[in-house]
Structure formats: structure tokens, C-alpha cells
Specification:
alpha/beta; 8 strands; single chain; 21% strand
Amino acid sequence: MRVAAVQHDIAWEDPEANFSHLAPMVTYAVSEGADLVVLTEMFSTGFSLSAERIAEPFVGPSVEWLCSQAAQHDCWIAGSVPTLDIPGELPVNRFVVAAPDGAIHHYDKLYPFSYAGEHERYRAGKNRMTIEIMGVRTSLFVCYDLRFADAFWDLAHETDLYLVPANWPESRREHWQTLLRARAIEIAN
């Protein structure tokens, strides 16, 4: 399986602009042989804490776009979406994986980024998630989950690939890279 990680400049809180910007990037990734295209955390809006304004129903415009791209390109595609699916509750930061056959898998971020107040705008998920993509056991996480090593260790026996999309600012790039290396070293041992 070939995986493409797509990094892009985000049009702030503007899903349609982001869909238009990302579509050729997905096309290019698939033309270069990608079977799985992974987009950023909150790929359609940016990492916004205006959850009440940007959250979508589970199968809203962003998930529909992911599904249409997966079907159009006969590939798997993944990205996180601010999702409100329980009336009266906070939305979740949901990592959605769309399969080429129309199946949708999802994981809700376990650990909201409390330093930025994400926990006040988005509720935490409850369950870890491992799915099979083309025979590869793939565990799903989102951004700040990376700081919690036990979550990765607990799934190491049943995981071939971890997907961890993020939306970290340039100023914290070294933090992200260090944490990724740490999880890889810990799990390999």
C-alpha cells in the first residue's frame, strides 16, 4: 500500500475553498500511485475553536466530499472533520476514513488539546480504533493524542500502521516530529 500525506494551506473556515484546493492534490497523489491519501486535521476548516459555527452533521459536506473523492479515484482517503452528531452535546474532532466501496470508518479524538481550550469546544472520544486497509491493520489517532504513549502501546500488537493527522503551527513543528519519533521508537522496542 502506498500512502500520500497531503499538507496544504487552509482557507480558514471555508470548506468549499478547501475542497477546490485539495481536489487536484488528491488527483495528483493517486496519479503517483497512492492507495491511501491522508489529509490534515480539520482539513476543510482549519483547526478552529468556533465549533458551534463549523461543526457538521456526521455525513455532512466534508464527509460527502471524502466519499466522492474515494469513489472517483478508487482509493482510500482520510481526514479529520468537526462533527456534531449528538444534539445538546459538544461536537467531536472526528477522523474519517472513506473507502472506495463507500464504507466509512471513523474515530473520535480521545485527547482534546486542553492547552488551547479544545476540551471546552469539542468533547473527547471514547474508543480506540483499528481498521483494515488493503490488508494493513491501521490504527487511527488525531494530533494531540500523540502525547499519550499508552494509547499507542495498547494497540501495538494489532497495528501495522498508525495514522495521526495534525494541524500544528510552524512554531511547534519540532515538538510534533519529536513525538512521532518517540512513539515509533517506543513501539519498535
